Amino acid sequence: MTLGAKLLVGSATLLALGACGQRTDVAPLTGQSLPPVPYGQETQPNSAELLVMETLAAPERSVELRRRSEEREDDPFDLPPE
User: For 1, how many CA atoms within 13 A lie in the half-sphere containing its CB?
Assistant: First the structure.
């Protein structure tokens, strides 16, 4: 295979992969409906509202990372194997 043919095949592959992304809004399939109204709500959330994660589903990191080397404290549960 010549260099020109390889470049043509490679660019066609990249173009095809670049076109794979979904650019339309999410909607239920034909014949399907959205899930029932959640308990305690009066209105049906739309598909965009259903895709938003709750805080408990993706919590923020609450542990501060160490900035420098520090001596570790003694861990009473770090036992040798038996």
Answer: 7
